[in-house]
């Protein structure tokens, strides 16, 4: 889907295996623009993990979208089904990642990526999208302005050692 956003054409589409080189370049540019923000390296190991994810059955329920400005990835969103016997359903998805290059923010890119994820959720009969909110002020503002959303709970990350 191509949409005109401000001064440029933006394409939002599924992340496919042939996009790996552009996605790795996007991840590297994220780290260049914000060197103290991301927890893992976008290196050759990451590239190999991305490649294998396309044939790994554990990723069958994952959905990933990229935002392209011309031929360059400027944003990405990823979500996966939450399967839990607590409600005996796969009613919700976890929004694992939504990020836009710092130099491209405030142009509705993240909102368009989120719309794509929500649209796919609706198509699949998923009624709830759950996300962890990043601690930075910019991310907080983004999440607090999402229509038809409410903030619940606090997250904790536990390392398994």
Protein described:
It is a single chain. The protein is an alpha+beta fold. It has 4 helices and 6 strands. It has a 6-stranded mixed β-sheet with strand order 1-2-3-4-5-6, sandwiched between helices. Strand 3 and strand 4 form a beta hairpin. It is globular, with a radius of gyration of 16 Å. The model has no long low-confidence stretch (mean pLDDT 88).
Write the layout of secondary structure elements.
Layout: E1 2-5, E2 8-14, H1 20-33, H2 44-53, E3 63-69, E4 72-84, E5 89-100, H3 109-123, E6 128-131, H4 137-144
Parallel strand pairs: 5-6
Antiparallel strand pairs: 1-2, 2-3, 3-4, 4-5
Query: Which stretches are poorly predicted, pLDDT < 50 over at least 5 residues?
Result: none
Shape: globular
- Radius of gyration over C-alpha positions, nearest whole angstrom: 16 Å
The mean pLDDT is 88
N-to-C SSE series? EEHHEEEHEH
Count of β-strands? 6
Briefly note the structural class of the backbone. Answer: alpha+beta
The quaternary state of the protein chains shown equals single chain
């Amino acid at each position: 889907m191509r949409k005109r956003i401000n001064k440029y054409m933006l394409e939002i589409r599924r992340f496919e295996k042939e996009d790996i080189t552009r996605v790795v370049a996007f991840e590297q540019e994220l780290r260049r623009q914000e060197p103290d923000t991301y927890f893992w390296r976008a290196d050759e190991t990451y590239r190999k993990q991305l490649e294998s994810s396309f044939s790994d059955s554990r990723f069958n329920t994952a959905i990933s979208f990229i935002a392209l400005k011309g031929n360059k990835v400027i944003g990405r969103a990823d979500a996966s089904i939450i399967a839990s016997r607590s409600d005996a359903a796969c009613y919700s998805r976890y929004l694992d990642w939504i990020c836009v290059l710092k130099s491209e923010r405030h142009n509705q890119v993240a909102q368009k990526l989120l719309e794509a994820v929500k649209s796919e959720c609706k198509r699949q009969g998923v009624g709830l999208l759950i996300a962890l909110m990043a601690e930075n002020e910019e991310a907080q503002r983004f999440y607090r302005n999402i229509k038809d959303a409410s903030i619940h709970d606090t997250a904790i990350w536990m390392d398994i050692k």
